[in-house]
Amino acid sequence: MTQQLHFFFFPFMAHGHTIPFIDLAILFATKGVKSTIIATPSNAPHIKKVTHKANKLGYQIDTLVIKFPAVEAGLPDGCDDTDKVPSPDMMPKFFLAVEMLKQPLSDLLKQHCPHCLVADMFFPWTTEVAAMFKVPRLVFHGTCVFSLSAVEHVRLYQPHKSKETFTIPNFPGDDIKMTTAELEDYIKQETWQTKLFNDSKETESKCFGVIVNSFYELESVYADHYTDFLGRRAWHVGPITLSTKEQEKESNDERGKENWLLEFEKRMEGKGLVIRGWAPQVLILENEAIGGFVTHCGWNSILESVTAGVPVITWPVAAEQFYNEKLLVEVLKIGVGVGARKWKRLTGDFVKSEAIEKAVKEIMVGEKAMEMRNRVKRFADMAKKAVEDGGSSESHLNALIGELSSIAMKTCK
């Protein structure tokens, strides 16, 4: 009898990281894998709510709650999510608490003996912990290989050390120009995040491999470069939201059955829409009335826009968002920038209303807008085919599960 695979999923404690991790756990569960999501106390209820709905659809997904050592790290009691961190100055303490999870994670691995650990990029130390129990560790970054590769080239070659404006060295495809103002603080100077960033990049080649929420056809040149030149093992299994659409529909159907605020909702019928909690962005983008999407260039939002066939207006702020903008505007040519040029952790770069008006007109009016719209719709069709039987993402997912299944058969006693 074939042994059922059991995977651990360990997301970073932030909404933008947790959501794709839940979708990823569901994706593997649809393939017969038992998925277990490790969560802190305040994040567990939201995760359990989503996984409960997935369980009702017949998927095997559990949640394990892990105590977060907030007080031990000098944080307020119960501060187990980035939204709860009182100020940016306290973030080093939050990551100290994260590192203190090594022993609790070790205990869980010893107790449950999973066949694989899929851990967030912000947990580079999990590679070593998993190796102690001979558990393959996969990194889930939640971004594209274009940006993963570009970031690594800037880290390795450091072109910003000698030029204010530079072309990313030894990068495939089109010349990608950047400025030092668009780079992360921890790349330009030594900060508390620099070591974390370096460890995160280095563990990509030390661990079993990298799961990418993208599809090969969208960035094939950079996907090949990431594996062949940078030496990373990677599986492109996205867009994950397309693969988990059935579960998402069930979730939204149930949300529609809630009966609170009915009076207000009735008054707004035909004039407005009441959204409870986080807006269902995928459903909104797929509405035929949507002609464009202003985005901060977070990868989750970008992929949702691409799969919906909606062109974008780019307004990057922080993280890898300026790299993502380059992919959208210069490579794929499905977006128009508003002119944001400074990496800012909190407030972002200020942009004048005239720039936004100009960008809106560019994606809505004229021949260029029509070309952009047709191009993004072609990518949307490619995305749908990628997750179908025989598609590139479906094939990557099956290959990964097959490889991990073979390892499990060899190591089981």
- Placed side by side, the strands forming the largest sheet appear as 3-2-1-4-5-8-9
Separation of the first and last Cα atoms: 14 Å
- Give the DSSP E fraction (strand runs of 2 or more residues): 5-15%
CATH class of the largest domain: Alpha Beta
Q: Give the ordered list of helices and strands.
A: EHEHEHHEHEHEEHHEHEHHHHEHEHEHHH
Number of helical runs? Answer: 18
> How confident is the prediction overall: mean pLDDT?
88
Keywords: Glycosyltransferase, Transferase
InterPro entries: Glyco_transf_N, UDP_glucos_trans, UDP_glycos_trans_CS
Family: Belongs to the UDP-glycosyltransferase family.
GO molecular function: UDP-glucosyltransferase activity
Give structural notes.
It comes from Gossypium australe. GO terms for molecular function: UDP-glucosyltransferase activity. Keywords: Glycosyltransferase, Transferase. There is one protein chain. The protein is of the alpha/beta class and about 425 residues long. The chain folds into two domains: about 5-245 and about 385-410, Rossmann fold (3-Layer(aba) Sandwich); about 275-385, 3-Layer(aba) Sandwich (Rossmann fold), CATH 3.40.50.2000. Helix content is about 45%, strand content about 10%. It is built from 18 helices and twelve strands. α6 crosses α9 (about 220-230). The two termini are about 15 Å apart.
